[in-house]
Amino acid sequence: MNTLVAELTVNGAPVKVIAEPRTQLCEILRETLNLTGTHVGCEQGVCGACTVLVDGKPQRSCVSYAGDCSGSSVITIEGFDEDPLMAELRDAFSRHHALQCGYCTPGMLVTARDIVLRLGEVAPGTIREELSGNLCRCTGYVGLVEAIEEVSKGRKPQRAATFTPAVKVAAAGQTAPPVPLPAHASSPARPVRSAVPGNAAQPDLRKGWSRIEQHLEIAVPPDQIWQKLRDIRDVSKCLPGAEITEVDGSALSGRMNVALGPMKVAFSGDGTVVFDEAARSGRMTGRGRDTGSGSSAEGEVEWRVEPAEKNADAASRILVVLSWRLSGRLAQFNRGGLVQDVIQRLASIFAANLEASIKGTPAPAGEIKSLGVLDLLWSVLVSRWRRWRGK
């Protein structure tokens, strides 16, 4: 696979990313650097929602390739936090009701700032013409035009390319994690790190990743649990929607089926798994992509089996650290207070299925073909309501 190294300055900080030649600038900004203020709309350079400054000029990041931008200075909406002109525009947008849903607003603000700098005081008709490349479905543009006109009053034109905004600079020398590669580019195996709860070491979490710790209590002796967990292909059947399709030493391939109401996605990808027999611990990493929705996922899970605090000879405790990152359409499900409850609910289902599998009894929920997130959300909401009612 061909890859390139793109060296950029993003919001004042040097950044180096490894990407495919076809990788778009907006992918690096959103999925690698977690600068999600850059919104992606049409992905054809028409709507203007993804507009950023590249070398001082507004540019559509959805039709800009990473390689073409190498060596350039990029400023996203997050980079203007301390810029006086952008502060005036944000205040004027608010007072003139120049935004409703807000999806077009980041690109609209970047364009508005360029208009004021480049043209100085500007008439409403000219503002409308200049904004014709930024589409808004909510406001009718009246508030937008009024806000920009107000901020432009009394200003003289400046050459935007020579203007240096007061950017909040990130740590110098930052190296961004690579843009996710296609599923067949498996990650190399890494040694097991002692990162499960109870140890001092913790996983190295990259920006944009989420993390949760979970303790599972299972009424099965530790040795039996450990032997079961050593068979990754078999144990994957206990997780709804998951399937390991191939295992070759430490490398593995698999898929995960997820049902989100009417949207069904199937992640296919590769990963690695390593075990520490002495510590009864393991670590698995993987990444995958759903070609239908364009969403991608990366994940790491580390676990350790130890005797339960009570009835140590007949029961076990599995300590798990799960880290993940979602991008694309599914990234919206990575937010919100319900996510942790959903993960815990899923872990409970996994524990019950694992215990049933070891004991040779039927799984409590029967055979589950896919992960129904809406069903999980509903069960979490019902559980919360019952707790609130004191039942």
Automatic annotation (TrEMBL):
It comes from the Bacteria. Residues 4-80 form the 2Fe-2S ferredoxin-type domain. Pfam families: COXG (PF06240), Fer2 (PF00111), Fer2_2 (PF01799). Residues 178-203, 282-301 are annotated as: Disordered. InterPro entries: 2Fe-2S-bd, 2Fe-2S-bd_dom_sf, 2Fe-2S_ferredoxin-like_sf, 2Fe-2S_ferredoxin-type, 2Fe2S_fd_BS, Beta-grasp_dom_sf, CO_DH_gsu, Diverse_Oxidoreductases. PANTHER family: OXIDOREDUCTASE WITH IRON-SULFUR SUBUNIT, XANTHINE DEHYDROGENASE IRON-SULFUR-BINDING SUBUNIT XDHC-RELATED. Keywords: 2Fe-2S, Iron, Iron-sulfur, Metal-binding, Oxidoreductase. CDD domains: SRPBCC_5. One of its GO terms (molecular function) is oxidoreductase activity. This is 2Fe-2S iron-sulfur cluster binding domain-containing protein. The keyword Oxidoreductase applies.
